[in-house]
Amino acid sequence: MSKANEEKTYHEHEWMVRPCMIYKAEYDDCTSIRARFNQYFIFGETLDCNQWKTDYLNCYEWEKHKSEKAYDELIMSEKQRRKERLRAHYQNDVWEKREKPPENWNAPLPEWMQKEFENSYLHIRNQEIKQGKENSQLDSRCTIL
After folding, report:
1. Does some domain include residue 97?
2. Is residue 63 domain-resident?
3. What is the total count of domains within the chain?
4. What are the backbone dihedrals phi and psi of residue 50, each rounded to the nearest 5 degrees, phi first?
5. Which domain holds residue 53?
6. What is the pLDDT of residues 73-128, one digit of tens each?
C-alpha cells in the first residue's frame, strides 16, 4: 500500500473535525453569562464547558502540528458528542423505522392543494427562477405576521 493511501485511510474521520474557531466559539458561548444563567435555570447547575476548550486546543494542535494524539482525542470527542446527540433516536422504541420510503412518497399533490399553491409566494418565485428572471414581480419585502 502506498504512503498516500495509508495516510488517507488513517484519517478517514477527518470530516468530523470542525473548523477550530467553531470549538472556540462554542466554548465562549457555553461560558457566557447568558448561557450560565440559562444552564442554571434549565438544569439547576452550570454545565462543564471544558470539553469545548480541550477540543479547540486539540484542533489547533492537529491543524498546526499534525499531532496524531490531538487528532485521535478530537475524533473520540466528536464521536462521543454525536453518540449523545443521537442517543434518544436509537433508544426510541415507539416508532417502527422504515427500510425504504413509502411507495407514493413523490405522488402529485391533490388537486385542491395544487390550486391553493398556485398563488403562493414560493410557487410564483419558483416559476420566475425556472424562467431565469432575476428581478421578481413580487415585492422583495416580505413580512410574516
Report:
1. no
2. yes
3. 1
4. -65, -25
5. 7-91
6. 999 999 999 999 999 999 998 988 889 999 999 999 899 998 988 888 888 888 88
